[in-house]
Amino acid sequence: MGAIGLTMAHPLFAQDSSWPADELMGKVNPALFGKGYRLRKKASDAFIAMQKDARMAGIQLHSLSSYRSYAHQERIWTRKYQRFTQAGMSPEKAIAKIVEYSTIPGTSRHHWGTDLDMVDASVKVTGDQLLAKNYHAGGPYEKLGDWLREHAESYGFYLVYTNNPARKGFSYEPWHYSFKELSCSMLDAYLSLDLKGELEKAKLLGSEHFTEAFISSYIQDNIKGINPVLL
Ligand SMILES: [Zn+2]
Fold first, then answer.
1. Quick one: pLDDT band at residue 18, thresholds 50, 70, 90?
2. Are 209 and 95 in contact (CB under 8 A)?
3. Residue 12 CA to ligand 1 centre (angstroms)
4. Most exposed residue of 112, 117, 133, 161, measured as fewest CB within 10 angstroms of its CB?
5. CB 113 within 8 A of CB 24
6. Closest by Cα among 65, 68, 99, 87 to 204
7. What CATH code would you report for 15-226?
8. What does the pLDDT read at residue 13?
9. Beta-carbon neighbours within 5 Å of ion ligand 1
10. 179 has which bridge partners?
11. What are the residue ranges spanned by the domains of the chain?
12. Segment 194-228, tens digit of pLDDT
């Protein structure tokens, strides 16, 4: 993607349709940057600046998850599908349960190198770190949650899965932020792909149970069900 360099020098060169499908679906390795995380250059630079300022506020911004490949997402999918169906859930139920928090491989914003999940490494949390209540009053990441809500946008990072009750799709994720400048154009290109076709031909565990209605609502609610400023 030499276009990235060009874009920095020439803002008129929008990236819109120049994102290849495989890159949007995590199937090729883009150039990634970062120590302890992997993001595209511009997003990484912005994250470094944000980390630095957060440190002054006593917060050790740490990325728990940033870029994830298709193969990585597929391992998550397979593990959860097996666990849920072995626990007695029907395939349809298991799929619905997975997509409360996890994506279908090929549809994760983590494939883009623009999104990341953050914790405060200066706080020890035993058990599941990524719980919404941890990022609010009384939770171990209360300070981080407040700081991100107040400052992240000034570094170009926006909350994706908000707590707006009218929003459908993935549950509220106060830890997941997206570098808007890049991810907006990637989403735009992504939505112009034949997602239905891509999902139908993906040979995932349980994907023979993807109905037409499920795929339609997944695209509408899960992929588009985000903070409207990122659309
Ligand atoms: Zn995430």
1. confident
2. yes
3. 30
4. 133
5. no
6. 99
7. 3.30.1380.10
8. 47
9. 117, 176
10. 157
11. 15-226
12. 988 888 888 899 999 998 899 999 999 999 999 99
